[in-house]
Amino acid sequence: MEILAYIYYLVTSIKNRLYDKGILKPKEVPGVEIICVGNITVGGTGKTPGVQYFTKKLLDQGRKVAIVSRGYKGKRKRDPFLVSDGREIFASPKESGDEPFLHALNAKVPVVVGANRFKACSFVKKHFDVDTIILDDGFQHRKLKRDRDVILVDATNPFGGRALLPKGTLREDLKKGLERATEFIITKSDLVGEREVEKIRKYLRRYKKEVSIAKHGVSSFCDLKGNMKPLFWVKGKRVLLFSGLANPLNFEKTVISLDPEYIERVDFLDHHHFKEKDFKNIRKRAEMMDADYIITTEKDLVKLPRNFKLENTYVLKIKFTMLEDNTLKPVGGLDGSN
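^ that's the sequence the OP posted. Answer follows.
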């Protein structure tokens, strides 16, 4: 692990140094502001609801917004690929990837995916009348010039064990990455104590950037058709959770806040596409533990087959809520420096 982490460090550090020194230059998409919502660790920081929060905030300000994503694990035949024009969805979750499909469902703005983010943003600018593009992930994708880099820091695992992949979960050198950010949002603050949040805030303040605080509270509890059910239904019940998330423990912590009697989990890999054998295993596990309810996430819901049937299955939807919002202020440090 140590050797692999060191090799990863060398590769990412050399690439970043070449961009920092201007030897490699990012490509610019003129006439549009690009705001990247990213992170410094692998998965699970809350980018999907964060992107949707910024989309709504910018739309409320009168901006014309589109979303661009890599479309991780999406099986599409062309690139860039139009997921939605803001009115109609043209792709399945399997083609677009699960996060872009969720954006198309919830954000109601153009959504485009592409491994080459410059080409994807250029496609958006050419075909849609927008003045702002939100880049979902891509902080480490330095081939594209951005106007802002908003970095989400997961309060439950803020700095990836301070070790790079594969030893830890850092995507790049911690100090260099944080120095390059425009601003920070501490996410999932409701899943840790106030003292831990303050500790993270204090550490980030040394970089002289704005720091905001967000929580990921429960938005609603729904059946598979989207009909809302009372949250108190979960209290005192035996529940089985299933999900394909980077950090399923945070999903469990959120359900614990609803005070069930007993919880078990069936975990799948992040971005997992479910098969019939998975549902057989879930059903068997639910029967073994005598579960009252089976609960999954909105992200996993979009990957379930249309004819999916599993009795007493519900979806827990999460809302990204700002407790302290210092985002999208004029670029510069707290002392006015860049």
